[in-house]
Amino acid sequence: MAMQCTAHEHACIVRKVVRILLPMSLMALHDISPLAILLPQRDVRNQELPATSVVMHITGRATYLNAERRRKHPLIHLGDSFGKEDSSFAHYSVDPWGQIGCTAPERERPWAQGWGAFGGRRGLKQKLASGALEVPAWWLEYWGTFDDCMSPLDLLIDPLADSPNDRSVAIEFIQYGNQFLLTEAQYAAGYSLLHDICFRNGILCEPPYIRGHEDTDPWGRGTKDGGWDPGARRVAPRFNWGVMFNGLIEASAGMMISTPPRPEWAPHLNTNGNPTG
Ligand SMILES: [Zn+2]
Question: What domains does the chain contain, in order, with CATH numbers?
Answer without folding.
Answer: 36-251 (3.40.80.10)
